[in-house]
Design brief:
The protein has helices at residues 21-36, 57-75; strands at residues 3-8, 11-18, 46-54, 77-88, 93-103, 117-118, 124-128, 131-139. It has 140 residues and is of the alpha+beta class.
């Protein structure tokens, strides 16, 4: 599993990994879905393109998860998987993701928790010899 959860007072902590920044963001999308519903209940029925830009990889992770939260809250959309491309132009990082998932179906999807926001507390993304690792806290 390219992610793990850790306890955080009143919130949910997530550590994510990937051989690339693209894989790290894909892992973060899968972790987010696992937090809110049983990921086995989500089907890949539609594709939606998401994009975000940030000045650093940690802020890109934050904004990417914020976009997934917006899709969930405002559009009632769950993401099963994501194909992510990341570009760096020297000043900013751009992530474009083709997400696959479906709208929430009350008969099949039973929310486990409701995420209120993506925090900046303990937010980190680092490149290591093995790839990329990140930490983020979800406010629930």
């Amino acid at each position: 599993m390219p992610y793990e959860f850790f306890p955080h007072t009143g919130d949910i902590g997530i550590r994510v990994w990937g051989r690339s920044l693209e894989e790290l963001l894909r892992s973060a999308a899968q972790a987010f879905t696992t937090v809110v519903v049983d990921p086995a209940s989500v089907r890949e029925l539609e594709a939606v393109i998401l994009s975000c830009r940030a000045s650093a990889p940690d802020l890109l992770l934050h904004d990417f998860l914020g976009e997934l939260l917006f899709q969930f809250d405002a559009r009632g959309r769950l993401v099963k998987d994501a194909e992510v491309a990341v570009a760096h132009d020297g000043e900013s990082w751009l992530a474009e993701a083709r997400t696959r998932g479906e709208r929430i179906d009350a008969g099949r999807h039973h929310p486990k928790v409701l995420v209120k926001g993506i925090t900046y507390h303990a937010l980190a993304v680092n490149e290591t010899a093995e790839g990329w690792q990140g930490t983020v806290i979800l406010d629930i």
